[in-house]
């Protein structure tokens, strides 16, 4: 029992070290940066599949960008929609010179990456931004990316979910916040492993140098994460966009079952991360899970609550301090329940993702 006590206290101290290190890294990441007006030529590529009800909001948001119209184009690729997405887009952009819509005929790759590939190849400009058809980028989204392209080949930004009153939405927002804290902290430490396709960008030159999506077909999902993996392999500079006026907002799934499917699909990509990323994430999750499950040893001694106590206190502190930076305002009273749920879900989504049937919706 004494050995087990030593192990748990060592885990608690290791977790404390990790968490304080993450806090320090995030403090540096979110320091004020001056954003200047840029005039880079940028192509925005969007893959749309059955998005007739959402695409108008995206178009409206892109028209409100604080960026000269002649310096960016928007390419929407209709990926064999069975609704009237193509007709809705065509009508909405008929008088917009910098917008185009294409059909995803003769795709080289399955799923979403095949549609994106068509759009990227037809892009006129040297820099590419990617977002989803159901998203709403804030007004300085393009300009914030343009500011960082002089120093980086690949960039990814913050993409929060809009708040509603549903429990599914609350769970999704919290898990997005928790995941992003780790994603951005690890990237700042030099281990970028994940990026949201809702706010992602790269130079077309760098994209072509890694042969585009050719080496990212390990799984139907994860086109963003696996493209980032290839960028890391080829030693490209990878940066982050953290400006609040460059957030890309979207909605969560309304039904919990659809959210579970979405998370399982995304989580399935993790087995294709680089070995370094897998090891670091594995250690991180194991430490958190040991700390969480230490509560079951409480009958053997009150000291066994210490790892869980350290975990929850530090988690709440970091989450509350940085949630605004990631576009969230979640009541801290929910944090303990949501954090425990997050750790348990991480196991469930991973196991389910191992046998999840990929589907590009």
Description:
By secondary structure, this protein is of the alpha/beta class. It has two domains: 1-32 and 167-193 and 256-355, no CATH class; 33-159 and 196-242, Spore Coat Polysaccharide Biosynthesis Protein SpsA, Chain A (Alpha-Beta Complex). Helix content is 47%, strand content 12%. It contains twelve helices and nine strands. The chain has a seven-stranded mixed beta sheet with strand order 3-2-1-4-7-6-8, with helices on both faces. It has a two-stranded antiparallel ribbon with strand order 5-9. Helix 1 (2-29) packs across helix 6 (167-188), helix 1 (2-29) packs across helix 10 (275-293) and helix 9 packs across helix 12 (335-354).
Keywords:
single chain, 361 residues, alpha/beta, Spore Coat Polysaccharide Biosynthesis Protein SpsA, Chain A, 2 domains, 7-stranded mixed beta sheet
Sequence-ordered SSE layout with sheet pairings:
Layout: H1 2-29, E1 42-48, H2 55-63, E2 72-78, H3 85-92, E3 99-103, H4 111-121, E4 127-132, E5 135-137, H5 141-148, E6 154-157, H6 167-188, E7 200-203, H7 204-209, H8 223-233, E8 238-241, E9 248-250, H9 256-267, H10 275-293, H11 306-322, H12 335-354
Parallel strand pairs: 1-2, 1-4, 2-3, 6-8
Antiparallel strand pairs: 4-7, 5-9, 6-7
Helix pairs in contact: 1-6, 1-10, 1-11, 6-12, 9-12, 10-11, 10-12
Q: TL;DR of this structure?
A:
With 361 residues, the chain is of the alpha/beta class. The chain has helices at 2-29, 55-63, 85-92, 111-121, 141-148, 167-188, 204-209, 223-233, 256-267, 275-293, 306-322, 335-354, and strands at residues 42-48, 72-78, 99-103, 127-132, 135-137, 154-157, 200-203, 238-241, 248-250. Helices cover 47% and strands 12% of the residues.
